[in-house]
Amino acid sequence: MNANGIDIGQAIKFYRKKQGLTQEQVAESSGLSVKYISLLENGSSKNISIQKLSDIASALEVNLATLLTNDKPQFSDNSTPYTELLFLKLQNLPTEKSEEFSKVFLDLFRSLENFSK
């Protein structure tokens, strides 16, 4: 399912796995069938409407534009699934909220570091 070099099916699969979701969970949240999600991810289905793609993006908690770009976040080899999930959640928040949450997390880390000394 290439649109300008973008494999939407692979993007769906990437973000589904990063969110720790099954195809069944994405299908249920998006109102689509498991078979359809599977066909998209495997590149067997070439047709998807913007509305269906938007529903999938909502189920994955990412912006529609995120699925339409090749810009997947790069994680280090030693990052954990929870670290990656936290990063993705922060990345998909509005900038102001992401900054606010990041500051809270950093304050929490500092407090925990001081507590453990």
UniProtKB/TrEMBL annotation:
GO cellular component, one term: cytosol
InterPro entries registered for this protein in UniProt: Cro/C1-type_HTH (IPR001387), Lambda_DNA-bd_dom_sf (IPR010982), TransReg_Diox_bact_type (IPR050807)
Top-level taxonomy: Bacteria, Bacillati, Bacillota, Bacilli, Lactobacillales
Any Pfam family hit: HTH_3
Sorted UniProt keywords: DNA-binding
Protein name: Helix-turn-helix transcriptional regulator
Keyword DNA-binding: yes
Keyword hit for DNA-binding: yes
GO molecular function (one): DNA-binding transcription factor activity
